[in-house]
Amino acid sequence: MRRTRATAVAALLALGAALAVVAGAYATTERAAAPTAQTGSDSALIKCGKTRTIGFMAPVTGPAASIGIQQVHWAQYYVSTYNKTHKKTKLQTEDTQLGAPTGTAEALKGAQALAGSPNVLGVVGPAGSNEIVGVTKSLMDGGLAWVSGSSTRTSLTTDGTRTGYMFRTVPPDAIQGPTAANYIIKVLKYTRVYIIDDQETYSTGLADEVQSRLKAAGVTVGRDGVSQQQSDFSSLIAKIARDTQLVYIPWQLTPKGIAFGNQMKAAGKGSIKLMGADGLFDSTFAAVGSHVYDTNFPLNPKSKIIAGFKKGHGGDGEYFGAPTYAATQVVATAIDRACKKGTATRASVRAAIRSTNIPAAQSLIGVALRFNRNGDLSTAKKFGLYKSNGTVFVPIPG
User: Fold this and answer.
1) For the chain, what is the total number of helices (H) and then of strands (E)?
2) pTM of the model
3) Are 349 and 121 in contact (CB under 8 A)?
């Protein structure tokens, strides 16, 4: 997921009409189940004091820095507004370098630093699904709950490994995947599709979901994978038949998506439609051409929060990072509740996150912030679909 963008104002006006795909496992309104284990870090009393510390994990540098900086900006924006009326909150930021050859090691190092920091009560992030797989043990051993504003792989919350510790403020791939697949099948009515993943957790999960649904509908699907380190896609592009109608690339790194799209055009295959996922939702990817489609997280088009953010960021909504604002809101609010007596534990913050109930009117993403027993939003049931106008992504009504 990744980058600075100048998305059209019109994109906000139709977000509420984005295609809805309901996944039964996420429709329940039950709270997330309680953690099953405790460590010394769980029960250690932390003085809340005048300043409360939130751990923050994001790709500040590296190949995905363009999206990481959006998440940084949105987290900082929440903290700056929250601090005007509450006890001071600060972020302890750890750079995960998502997509870099050393990214997994950097994410792990960051998780260990937060787990070992005596003042950190909860964590916002990490950004990538693959990062979460790598840092789960360190964060859980430290008793820390984390709320991600961008990790979408379905199994992260459904396999039971992180129950009571991991939460997210975006819908899972169980919703995003069907949204993309249904549009290809029912609206575009394409029958020849090629899918390429980037061999990382986020990408392979989405690719698998879309592939299975397309095949079930009788669509002919080719499938391949490519390393995030690869930049020359000529041999891969040569394998894509010229009668292919759409190539689906749920990748995490925008520069790679741009390079692939441009190399497709150079190979004389620019007429083939190209579709990314939330990880490529950026105006620079949209600029590849008007044949490009994408999906992205739902937002509240009438939110005054968005208007305030854009005012302070040159009119750029940096929409990929917006759910990180919601994640920061959840953690800060939970810490505030847990700190009512002046001290809190990581276990009490986890419990407060589980019982989060922030009304839709106060939510940037357009739905109430409540979690089901898995740690997914019980209220989020849609992803938005977009098509490039040659410059930016514009929402597809429906």
Assistant:
1) 14, 14
2) 0.81
3) yes
Q: Angle 103-116/129-141 helices, nearest 10 degrees?
A: 30
Helices (H), 267-345: 283-286, 304-312, 322-338
Residue 16's H or E segment, with its range, is none
State which residues form the domain around 269: 174-296+385-395
Q: Which residues contact 9 (CB under 8 A, 6 or more apart)?
A: none
Does one domain contain both 340 and 373? yes
Three-class SS string for 157-178?
Answer: HHCCCCCCCEEECCCCHHHHHH
For the chain, the domain total comes to: 2
Among candidates 80, 94, 159, 142, which has minimal Cα distance to 349?
142
Tell me the C-alpha to C-alpha distance, in Å, between residue 257 and each of 31, 146, 373.
38, 29, 35
Residue 1 burial (CB count, 10 A): 32
| CA proximity to 280, closest of 222, 378, 196 | 196
Over the stretch 143-181, which tens digit does the pLDDT of each residue have? Answer: 999 999 999 889 999 999 999 999 999 999 899 999 999
Fill in the amino acid letter for 104.
T
> Of 128, 181, 179, 123, which is closest to residue 152 (Cα–Cα)?
128
What's the pLDDT tens digit per position in 327-348? 999 999 999 999 998 999 999 9
At residue 106, the pLDDT reads 96
Same domain for 115 and 79, yes or no, is yes
User: What Cα–Cα distance (Å) separates residue 221 from each residue in 11, 191, 224, 244?
Assistant: 30, 8, 10, 9
Local structure of 379: helix, strand or coil: coil
Q: Are residues 220 and 354 in the same domain?
A: no
Cβ within 8 Å of residue 275, ≥6 positions away: 180, 184, 246, 247, 248, 249, 292, 293, 294
Instruction: Count CB-CB contacts under 10 A for residue 47.
Output: 12
Give the C-alpha separation, 156 to 133, whole Å: 8
Residue 371 has what DSSP assignment? B
Residue 17 placed within a domain = no
